[in-house]
Design brief:
Radius of gyration of chain A: 21 Å
Radius of gyration of chain B: 19 Å
Strand order of the largest sheet of chain B: 1-2
Oligomer: heterodimer
Strand content of chain A: under 5%
Structural class of chain A: mainly alpha
Helix content of chain A: over 70%
Order of helices and strands of chain B: HHHHEEHHHHHHH
Distance between the termini of chain A: 38 Å
Order of helices and strands of chain A: HHHHHHHEEEHHHHEHHHHH
Strand content of chain B: under 5%
Structural class of chain B: mainly alpha
Largest interface: A-B, 43 and 45 residues
Largest sheet of chain A: 2 strands, antiparallel
Number of strands of chain B: 2
Shape of chain A: globular
Distance between the termini of chain B: 42 Å
């Protein structure tokens, strides 16, 4: 009898320690966060954190799981943002549909970005090729002034349109940061869930095998080129959706804000702070970086200096990231 | 038209010489450390500021200012390599960690320069005033000086690599690190010297160009991407490739301006980069390691 209770306690303890309680409590916390702190400024920072979590998560799928060190992820973010914004402004497309169209446009472009990367294996070569693509897209967006208004900025983008929900009634998105937060929260759950499901599926196992050894994967019958293109398309679609959300949330776009190298630098920093190749890595990293940068706002121009220093410190002293440092023993996906 | 073309060609040649200096530094680093140095543009930028301090502010003789610039940036490169890059070099994850650490250094140095020297563009006067007329073309002495210095430095660099013991050590490390270690080469020391040398080459080209373009904290960005393009064209790690690639790119760019507007110039060079990576990833002279 006593023995029985002991084993039961032990079982429950191990379930408590290893089960998804942490994930559940984080999700619950994120669900309640805007109600706990209804200050518009904090809700804004939370929304940005979630946005960066998803964006970095989509990069993590590419780099952390498939081992493709892309330096051009801003292309997908920027294309999603511009396509959705321009469609909404010129043709009056609904911004809700724009989320999908932005993602689709980014997915289309990703095939072009992926093609030169198929033959390249070493991270530096892939980094240069994707960086080249990203710079082309930035220069094109800067020069197509008739379409994008260049560096003057594309403004007057419509925000998300009102929706009627059962129970909640009509929700207006004008000056309603909490509504935007919950849209981002739903996108976050859907996309992070999809990425988690993907990396658990045979598809994800194939990706990891490509990351570990391309030759071994190929010899075991994994169609490396096909998988690489597919992971590019999926990752780009997610980044494009986030870009489109960004356009309808921030309401102004410039090539240097959505298509410059600084976007991908931020993505890389976030993922590394949290941990590369871990589903929770970009999420933890996004919240840590976004909130600490906001906290450092009082330091004014020194912020970016510190940003560089953080990047150096992380790679020198904690290359495995925060999440693995906190849970050194646990098997992390 | 033909005069204009000839003038463009000469300017292209001079610019190409500079690209070649920057890219040969990147190539040396890639060859020995297998590292894409994202902070290379910042050594270029620091070179610009050093010559600004030495020549414009302190009024040193141009030659002394150049030497001061090269030595100080050499030291910065060597110290950064020793403190920050050495702990990571050749450790697991190096092919990603080097990109991150050099990015961090790049962001840090850019904003450091921004804090110290401000965001205003700083001007450096010509080292020598005046223009000469050669074959009916007016070329300023500064540009002639750039061409002469670059050719001289590239010649010295090749001689150093081919003839001196230090140069042998560097090339041996680039070819096979383990074998070089077995033969008694102190690889870490070679890495430090290579980093310093490559930083000094970038600084020299910035110092020579500073009177033509002005100096600002972000001047390294454009140079870095150009340097990468040149390196890929010539084949990463190949010095000859970097030199020829530099001249090729600059000539193509300068002549290209005659046919299409200058805003699209960068699109063409990046497209060239991607096509070369796609069709011939090893570049014109590179080895097969992609």
């Amino acid at each position: 009898m006593v023995h029985d209770i002991k084993t039961r306690v032990a079982q429950n303890v191990s379930l408590f320690a290893n089960g998804p309680w942490l994930s559940r409590s984080v999700v619950l916390f994120l669900l309640a966060a805007p109600l706990l702190a209804p200050d518009p400024y904090i809700v804004h920072i939370l929304t940005l954190s979630l946005m960066y979590a998803v964006l970095a998560g989509s990069w993590n799928l590419l780099c952390g799981y498939a081992g493709i060190f892309s330096f051009g992820h801003q292309v997908f973010f920027g294309i999603g943002a511009y396509v959705s914004a321009i469609m909404a402004m010129r043709m009056g497309t609904s911004p809700w549909l724009g989320l999908l169209i932005g993602g689709g446009a980014a997915a289309l472009i990703s095939v072009v970005v992926a093609l030169p990367c198929l033959r390249l294996r070493a991270a530096p070569y892939i980094a240069i090729a994707t960086l080249g693509m990203a710079e082309i897209s930035r220069v094109v967006a800067q020069n197509l002034v008739g379409l994008t208004r260049g560096e003057l900025g594309l403004w007057g983008i419509p925000g998300l349109s009102d929706i009627a929900l059962p129970l909640a009634g009509t929700i207006s998105f004008t000056h309603n940061r909490i509504a935007y937060y919950y849209v981002m929260f739903v996108l976050f759950l859907l996309i992070t869930g999809a990425i988690y499901w993907l990396i658990k599926s045979p598809f994800g196992i194939a990706l990891k095998s490509i990351r570990e050894s391309q030759d071994a994967a190929e010899s075991l019958g994994v169609n490396v080129a096909l998988y690489k293109i597919m992971v590019f398309i999926i990752s780009a679609f997610f980044a494009g959706v986030v870009g489109s959300f960004y356009a309808h949330y921030i309401l102004i776009l410039t090539p240097s804000s959505v298509l410059s190298i600084s976007v991908v630098v931020e993505i890389i920093t976030i993922t590394l702070i949290g941990g590369l190749g871990i589903i929770w890595g970009p999420i933890a990293g996004a919240f840590i970086l976004t909130f600490s940068l906001e906290y450092l706002r009082f330091m004014g121009d020194y912020r970016l200096l510190i940003y560089g220093a953080i990047l150096i410190m992380i790679i020198l002293f904690m290359p495995e990231g925060f999440v693995r440092r906190i849970f050194p023993k646990r098997k992390l996906d | 038209m033909s005069m204009q073309a000839a003038e463009q060609l000469i300017n292209g040649l001079i610019l190409g010489a500079m690209y070649a200096l920057v890219a040969s530094g990147l190539s040396l680093i890639w060859g020995s450390l297998k590292m894409l140095n994202f902070a290379h543009g910042e050594f270029y930028m620091l070179g610009g500021y050093m010559v600004f301090m030495a020549f414009t502010i302190m009024g040193m003789h141009p030659l002394i200012a150049l030497i001061f610039t090269m030595v100080s940036v050499f030291l910065m490169g060597a110290i950064l390599q020793h403190l920050l890059i050495r702990p990571l070099v050749d450790k697991p994850g190096w092919d990603v960690s080097h990109i991150v650490i050099t990015l961090g250094i790049s962001i840090f140095l850019q904003n450091f320069a921004h804090r110290v020297w401000g965001e205003n563009f700083q001007n450096v006067p010509y080292f020598f005033n005046g223009t000469s007329t050669i074959f009916g073309l007016g070329i300023s002495h500064q540009r002639i000086l750039i061409l002469v210095v670059t050719v001289l430095v590239i010649f010295l660099l090749i001689t150093f690599l081919k003839k001196s013991r230090a140069g042998w050590a560097l090339r041996a490390t680039a070819q096979d690190r383990d074998a070089a270690t077995l033969y008694g080469v102190d690889v870490q020391k070679v890495y430090m010297w290579t980093m310093g040398l490559s930083a000094a080459l970038a600084a020299l080209s910035a110092a020579m160009l500073a009177p033509i373009y002005s100096v600002n904290p972000w001047m390294g960005n454009a140079v870095l991407t150009k340097g990468f393009i040149v390196c890929v064209l010539g084949g990463l790690g190949s010095l000859e490739g970097a030199i020829l690639g530099g001249i090729l790119l600059a000539t193509a760019e300068s002549l290209g301006v005659l046919f299409w507007s200058s805003e699209w110039k960068d699109v063409v060079s990046f497209a060239l980069l991607i096509i070369v990576l796609w069709i011939r990833p090893s570049g014109l002279f590179g080895t097969k390691e992609w």
